[in-house]
Design brief:
mainly alpha
Length: 200
């Protein structure tokens, strides 16, 4: 009995230290595991963002937003919950009321720009958004029959100017680009809506 008691007296402290170290390690790793899951959820959300035919045809256009309220936050207002800020969506419809192809491409590009403002918080989320933006940029190119580079630049710039229209939004864009890293350019499924399915 005394031998067991002596052995236990020598073993209990190292064993207790190991248990405490293990618990500390688990607690230390919890934020990293949580961050990994948060990133995975955000990437899945980003990749799921697509415009729909209803968006392109204006089936559920939002009301004109109240500008001070809309510009008070980075995200702005999105009353119809399609991922595109309401003022941007309405401006695209106002400029291209007779071209569903241009609206489809520019709405997709506007959605990608909005993701830059609202969804990027690390390199993995930046890559997911950059892939969406690359697809959208190429889709705008697909909407230009002549494949004219100047028109492509002009059309994407007009959307960028609509989306990044305040200082806080430009600051959020700059913050997002601080996570820039390399990624592979997508070369298939560029447009959310098949532009050939649209008559004009």
């Amino acid at each position: 009995m005394t031998i067991l008691h002596t052995v236990w007296r020598w073993v209990k402290w190292p064993l207790a230290i190991l248990v405490v170290a293990y618990i500390a390690l688990v607690i230390y790793r919890l934020p990293a595991v949580g961050e990994k899951q948060r990133t995975a959820d955000a990437v899945a959300h980003i990749q799921a963002q697509k415009i729909t035919m209803a968006d392109v045809m204006g089936t559920n256009l939002p009301p004109q937003p109240y500008e001070p309220e809309n510009d008070a936050t980075v995200a702005g207002l999105d009353k119809n919950n399609n991922g595109i800020r309401d003022d941007v969506e309405l401006a695209i419809f106002a400029k291209y009321p007779h071209s569903a192809k241009i609206r489809a491409a520019e709405l997709q590009y506007a959605l990608a720009d909005q993701l830059i403002l609202t969804q990027v918080f690390n390199a993995d989320t930046w890559i997911a958004v950059a892939e969406q933006q690359s697809r959208a940029y190429a889709c705008v190119g697909e909407s230009i029959p002549t494949k004219d580079l100047a028109t492509l630049i002009s059309r994407t710039k007009e959307v960028d100017d609509l989306v990044f229209n305040t200082q806080i939004r430009n600051s959020a864009k700059d913050q997002s680009y601080s996570f820039t890293t390399s990624y592979a350019l997508p070369d298939t499924d560029l447009c959310d809506i098949d532009l050939n399915s649209l008559s004009n």
